[in-house]
Amino acid sequence: MYHSVTDTPALCRTSSLVEELGQIEYIFSDKTGTLTCNQMEFRQVSIGGVAYADVVEEAKKGEVFSFAELRETLARGGEGSAIIDEFLTLLATCHTVIPEMKDEKIVYQASSPDEAALVSGADVLGYTFKVSSPWSLASIF
Question: Choosing a second label site near 92 at 20 to 30 A (CA), which of 55, 86, 107, 133?
């Protein structure tokens, strides 16, 4: 198996897949193709009841804040920065994603596209997951 768009061949990362497949009772799908395309993007997040987005519509300014404003809150240590820091640290470390270097860029390999999107989202916000090993469960920059 090979995915030509991302130049990625199939790679087995676990031997427990057969056992897990035998436990499946229900399969959920959608008709729009968002799940079947396996392409997820981190576009918006709510942390501590405050919404942040990569693009904020003019009508929603003041109730939704930009990712740039999130970074500014973290940099100045503003209200809620400790919660944001903890959330993004957990987002960058609590997963089964494997980082790989391709053309001097980190590419995240994950069993599900949503998990890869969440780790990529943390990366965009400055919490880069770099290493996963048996000795160090996770390492972020």
Answer: 55
* Cα-based angle 42, 141, 102 (whole degrees, multiple of 5): 70
73 vs 49: CA distance, rounded Å? 15
Give dist(CA 119, CA 89) in Å, integer. 10
CB-based contacts of 29, cutoff 8 Å, min separation 6:
35, 36
Residue 77, classed as helix, strand or coil, is coil
The sign of the dihedral angle between the CA atoms of 122, 125, 127, 130 is positive
DSSP SS3 for 27: coil
In a domain, 108, yes or no: yes
User: What total of structural domains would you count in the chain?
Assistant: 1
pLDDT digits over 13-49, tens only? 666 666 676 777 776 655 555 555 667 888 999 999 9
3-state secondary structure of 51: strand
Q: Is 30 a catalytic residue?
A: yes
Amino acid sitting at position 93: T
Residue 49 sits in which domain range? 40-140
- 30, 54, 85, 103: the active-site residue: 30
- pTM attached to this predicted model: 0.66
